[in-house]
Every structure is written in C-alpha cells, then in structure tokens.
Design brief:
Layout (H helix, E strand, L loop, with lengths): L5 E4 L2 H15 L5 E5 L2 E7 L4 E5 L11 H4 L46
Parallel strand pairs: 1-4
Antiparallel strand pairs: 2-3, 3-4
Length: 115
C-alpha cells in the first residue's frame, strides 16, 4: 500500500521513532536504523521499502514556523485544536477547526518577525 514511501516525522529521533521501532519488532520485522547516540536519525523498513526520517534533519526550526518559512499562508496556524480531538471527529476531513477548540499553549513563545 505505501511501498516506496519516505515519511518525514517531527520528533522521530527524540520520541516517536521508538513507537515505530516497537511496532516493527512486535510484527517480527528487523528494520535498518541509523542512530546518533540514543536518537534515531532514520528507520528503514526493507519489506515495504519505507523510510522514516526526522523532519528536523532537514528543517531545523519549530514546526510552528514552517508555513511562514516556506510562505505557505494557507497552512499557517498558531494554535492546536486539542478539544476537537474527540472520538466523533477522528475521521474529520475539512478546514482547520475553529479557535474555540484550542487550549491556549503557553509553552511556545509567540511568533515574531524572525524565522
């Protein structure tokens, strides 16, 4: 189904990649991994010719800053709609949810004119 794909994943090397590895090992697969210390730079799954790469390897900036960096105004978003993430909305396809579904995020500094 996804044979030959390369997947760019945010935070693959620091966190999410370990879930991908666990799933592959549980299914009996032995992926090829390029580590950097205890971090995962990439995971290659030979059977499907599928590779997972941490997007930070290519774009060493915060995810929030990517749309502005590449002038993608239609993808710009300064909040995450945590309250929209419900069982009823799991199959939702459409426009970005309204701001009232967001929880104010205080851990990230506001965007300035700098990229």
């Amino acid at each position: 189904m996804h044979k030959g794909y390369t997947i760019l994943a945010l935070n693959l090397k620091g966190f999410d990649g370990h879930f991908v590895l666990r799933w592959l090992f549980e299914k009996g697969h032995v992926p090829q991994v390029i580590p950097q210390g205890s971090k995962l730079m990439s995971i290659h799954f030979q059977t499907l010719q599928m590779t997972f790469i941490d997007s930070f390897n290519f774009f060493p900036i915060a995810l929030l800053r990517l749309p502005k960096t590449f002038r993608l105004k239609q993808l710009a978003k300064d909040y995450f709609s945590h309250l929209f993430n419900t069982v009823q909305n799991q199959a939702y396809i459409g426009l970005l949810p309204a701001r009232h579904h967001a929880i104010v995020q205080t851990s990230c500094p506001p965007l300035t004119g700098k990229s």
